[in-house]
Amino acid sequence: MEIAYYPGCSLHSSSALYDVQCREVLGKMGIDLKEIDDWNCCGATSAAKTNDFLSIAMPARNLGIADASGFAEMMIPCASCYSRTLIAQKTLEGDKDLRDKINADLSKKVEGKIRIMSILDLLVDKAKSGDVAAKASIKLTGLKPACYYGCLQTRYPINVNLPDNVENPQGMEIVCEALGIEAIDWGYKTDCCGASAVYNDAGVSLKFIANIMKDAVARGANCLVTTCPMCQMNMDAFQEKAGAQYGISERLPVYFITELVGVSMGIGASELQIDRHFVEATKLMRGLNLL
What we know:
alpha/beta, Glutathione S-transferase Yfyf (Class Pi), Chain A, domain 2, Rossmann fold, 7 strands, globular
């Protein structure tokens, strides 16, 4: 099975390990990710905050390339890229004048044919069909993850059709259950980690990270799991600083959902690049005899 793939900037830079995991894990499920040609940045938060037109035009160019690819579906792992692309597609569906204006300068026009999927949409489908459990050779007993969705996959400025409950999403929990994991119930699964504010307003972001950590630890989590590169980066890279500042002694590894699925398939830590985390992420799994 082949589907279009838009990795976005993060998966070609700071979260390159996530790109490796998506290709490896989904490949073992029989899904061949075909990266769309000549894609550009979706604009992420920057375009959305500074220029309304660019915030739609930038992902629209990628949509045009995807529409022309001939694939019915395109998977986007990054929560920000997924959000901006979905918003652009929905906006252009309802605004013919804007669509015509943008299409006038595109060699590959936006047609609105392709289905946009997040990594979680795809994995939930596979979990519900039984494919995730069927490919799992290792039951991940002992992991007690706090499934952390963050804000980008649950907050949208326009009405878009989403497959999950934005107040209490359950997609990652469904995938975890298929892996033999019982995720904890907690209160901060959709709270913001501060996103890029960690670089220009670190005090606010560190407070957010500390709040998330405190609740996860209090509920008995021994790790966090996410699908968002920004959430993973903030909770992983700045956890030590937030913990030291707010008196949190525990340190929790922050896994991508693809790492849990990959480990369940017997893929090694080095191959998945789990050893590249800031908070040591292989010790917990080795202690549970999962690696």
